[in-house]
Amino acid sequence: MRLSLGENNIQELRNFVKWLLKFGDTTDGKSIVHIPSAILVKNSEIVLDDLIDFVYPDMLFNLSIENYFKDKAILAPTLDCVTDVNNKMRVTWTRKSIKGEC
Fold first, then answer.
1. How many Cα atoms within 13 Å fall on the side-chain side of residue 67?
2. Alpha-carbon span 22 to 7, nearest angstrom
3. 21 pLDDT more than 50
4. Which of 13, 16, 22, 35 meets the CB 3.0–4.6 Å disulfide criterion with 28?
């Protein structure tokens, strides 16, 4: 099975990339970034799980690998978000430890 993008999707992706690049070049001129609701990720437990799984694939299996976390990071806008990610990961590790002892 081959995944492909239609012409509409390609143009939409190009527009999104151009929009993002404006901020890196400081050509936007605004201090507040308005993210279109169509691309905004809503806050939920499932989204957080998916984000952690995306950044740290097979995390529980790879915990024993020395440099597994070295080149990976989840960026967050606030310390509260960082705390949420850390707590979610700690709960995951704790569950693994408990299952491993049984």
1. 1
2. 23
3. yes
4. 22
